Amino acid sequence: EDPYLMAEMTVPIIKGIQSKNVATCTKHFVANNQEYDRHWVSSNVDNRTLREIYFPAFKAAVQKGGALAVMSAYNPLNGVHCSENPFLLNQVLKKEWGFKGLVMSDWGAVHSEAAIEAGLDLEMPEAKYMSPENIIPKIKSSELDEKIINDKVRRILRVCLTMDLFNKNRTKPTIDWDKHHALAVKEAQEGIVLLKNEDHLLPFNPEKTKKIVVLGPTVDPTPTSGGGSAYIKPYRQISIFKALKKKAEPDIEVDFINTDRYPVFSKLVEQSIFYATSDLSQTGLKAIFFNNTKLRVPPVFRRIDQKIDFDFGTISPAFGVKSSEYSIRWRGYIKPEKSGRYVFAAESDDGVRVVLDGKTILEDWSDHAARKNFAEVDLRAGKVYALRIDYYNNKGDGIIRFGYGIIDESPLEQKLARIKNYDAVVIGVGFNSDIEGEGHDRPFALPEEQVQLIQQCSELNDNTVVLLTAGGGLDFAPWIDQAKAILHTFYLGQAGGEPVADILLGKVNPSGKLPFSIERRWRDAAAYDYYYPPAVEPPIYSADFSSDPKSITYGEGIFLGYRHFDKMKIEPQFPFGFGLSYTKFDYDDLKLSVKSIRNGDHLKVSCKITNEGKLAGAEVVQLYLHKEVNVLAVEKELKGFQKIFLQPGESKTISFEILPEHLSIYDHVKEKWEVKPGKYQVLIGASATDIRLKGEFLVKP
């Protein structure tokens, strides 16, 4: 939403990663803002909007961060695919910004040989168009200048040499896993945002809150990340429920209620029992491996697997099997102990098919990122069923997990009846790597069953706390009044439930601020009228690789996020930069170093922040600029922020420096950045709508 915030956050992480001799790749360049039909929907963006909104983070990554690689996006930009766009790659990235690293395509994002001269240096995951067969004849016929290829080679070698990849004596670094985990927990503690805290329910008072019940789809296990390329695999993690139970005082009871019909997926995989023979004399499943994706003979390896719980990554799954383009077939039997309705669940990257007694009950036979599929079947106790699982991996990571178990058909009302006996209810809701992944746009609303869960729990217990797991904002309207406290935890990654438990129990004071605005309704969003397909309630989201060129016009221009809400006088559900604390902060004593400047001058701004509460805490102080100039401009825009930690009663003075680049506006007619003369206002606040201090200065011609 905010280009300044993105740029400021991008530079340090690039410098940190590359300081360890690991190259960073900044992606996806550029305007890859929707996943629906992402290969063919052109993002049509005017030049000023590109320069002021979508380019700054990439420019900072290259010029300030020193990023060694940039990845071009799947989508076309103004009708030309980003991997084949000379304006984007040659003119802006390499010429204007002076980028010396390599430009690689996203996987399968090249559609023609135009990429060769457009500025792309590396086609991924293989050379389909930028291949020797296509390039060499062009050089020999003088159709292609060999200097273009030499430049690509130099860029690739420059990255390798900078990272010391050809050093035979390069050693693998020693990693302090405990230290890394502690850092992950600390980062999550500071990033979680307290959105609501009615009657100061949080932190839980240990004298009054002796019984806590935890429920909902994200509390055990707790999702670590979104899906697709955002998916991470923590080496250590604890769920929200288990962390809260572990960290609570001994005299505080913490219980869990599974409100889902299905058992937890990880438990399905772990607890499933298979037999290799029909007489049930041997446990496991017979696995046959093939060096093709079609399960075609001859097989190259056989073995017995007790469980199907594999993350092969990009290595061979078995002796003699390739690291990609392979398939596996498991055969065996199951014998349910109870009669009833069972769920069969599979997570795969890529295709999977499940056949029970000769009938296909689950099929997702296509190339895709890791995702889960479920099927329900009625089974009879004591009967032996023949089972077959087919799987293939084409390119990239290989993942296959499978399990089955009986469904809990108990009415939800029956499960929830006892929560009225608890002092507080903690509900985990939101999304996961399946809903919020890659290749599709996720919905704005929570799943209906999650909304109903919040509403039912609040009717039974007033002290209801909602923990939200998601990568962005969503529709709070149907349930916000039923929640007494709300924490936006985002995706907790390596940290797991530890930081959430710390905040609930008061061991940590929340200090995170929203890096985006959250609208009250989907139709309030700046992009509502410009989303493809036309915005509807609920939004359509689908991965449609139809090869049918389409386009969306970024009609909101520079007015997105809080800029849009300011312009349209719309009150968001939660504003950009918003976040509550267990304490209160006072803003005072704003000072500007001068009252007027000229183009090229710097201006210093300072103010005093005081912790007026009884608890130690941190505040993120935000500086916005309002420009009264003779061109179209936004009401205000972020140009500085600082996080300050204060003990109760403590005051500190913080300072900002306003630079010429903070005052600049891109003149699309002159095609250059300019500082326009006029009156400027400094706005210091706790969010985009909570401005505490104001000051003015003049920019002279």
From TrEMBL:
Pfam families: Fn3-like, Glyco_hydro_3, Glyco_hydro_3_C, PA14. GO terms for molecular function: beta-glucosidase activity. Keywords: Carbohydrate metabolism, Glycosidase, Hydrolase. It comes from the Bacteria. InterPro entries: Cellulose_deg_GH3 (IPR050288), Fn3-like (IPR026891), GH (IPR017853), Glyco_hydro_3_AS (IPR019800), Glyco_hydro_3_C (IPR002772), Glyco_hydro_3_C_sf (IPR036881), Glyco_hydro_3_N (IPR001764), Glyco_hydro_3_N_sf (IPR036962). The keyword rRNA processing does not apply. Gene3D superfamilies: Galactose-binding domain-like, Glycoside hydrolase family 3 C-terminal domain, Glycoside hydrolase, family 3, N-terminal domain, Immunoglobulins. GO terms for biological process: carbohydrate metabolic process. Belongs to the glycosyl hydrolase 3 family. This is Beta-glucosidase. It comes from Caldithrix abyssi.
